[in-house]
Amino acid sequence: MTIEATPGPQYRIGEIRIESTDNGHPLIISPEALRALIPLHKGELFNVEIVRTGLDNLRRAYLREGYVDMTPEPVTAVDNALRTVDLVVKIDQQVQYRVGSIEFLGVDSMTQEKLIESLPKPGEVFDSTTLDEFFKVNRAILPSDASRDDVAVERQNKMRTARIAFDVRVCPQP
Questions:
Q1: pLDDT digits over 110-163, tens only?
Q2: CA 58, 100, 124, 63: dihedral to nearest 10 degrees?
Q3: How far is CA 54 from CA 18, 118, 155, in A?
């Protein structure tokens, strides 16, 4: 079998800008800092996978600041004559969450005291990226099968807090 393909024209990245969807509320992270999280530069070949990586980088930056509902919306403008694609990422920041309460099920009080040291305190910004690091740092004192799946995060929208519940109880073997 012979497959013949004719590649289409290649497009290069033009301008990349980061903007807020709400003109009344500036971005909590500077557009320049956010722009640096998108690993594409003017004149490089336009690459959708790299744009996706950049959007994920933006999401993680906002998660670290407690903005768990932030949504990046990429808007492209294609110039067929110049074969360029301009990209504007519109950021809908939503609201910032703080830690409300932390609960542990399945660990004794001494272990709980050690575990709580590696988490943000109630009232601090809720950085959900710390939950993954939590399991790495505390692997030695957690049950062997404990994972991110054992964490429930309940957002309390009116208070803009997150209740974090760890359930690391060991299931009985049949």
A1: 999 999 999 999 999 999 889 888 999 999 998 888 888 999 999 999 999 999
A2: -10
A3: 11, 28, 26
Q: How far from the centroid of its chain's Cα atoms is residue 57's Cα?
A: 7
- Asked if pLDDT for residue 28 goes beyond 90, the answer is yes
What structural domains and CATH numbers belong to the chain?
12-92 (3.10.20.310), 98-167 (3.10.20.310)
Three-class secondary structure assignment of the chain:
CCCCCCCCCCCEEEEEEEEECCCCCCCCCCHHHHHCCCCCCCCCECCHHHHHHHHHHHHHHHHHCCCCCCEEEEEEEEECCCCEEEEEEEEECCCCCEEEEEEEECCCHHHHHHHHCCCCCCCCECCCCHHHHHHHHCCCCCCCCCCHHHEEEEEECCCCEEEEEEECCCCCCC
What digits encode the pLDDT tens for the residues 57-101? 999 999 999 999 999 999 999 999 999 999 999 999 999 999 999
Q: What is the dihedral of CA 53, 22, 19, 59, to 10 degrees?
A: -20
- What is this structure's pTM? 0.84
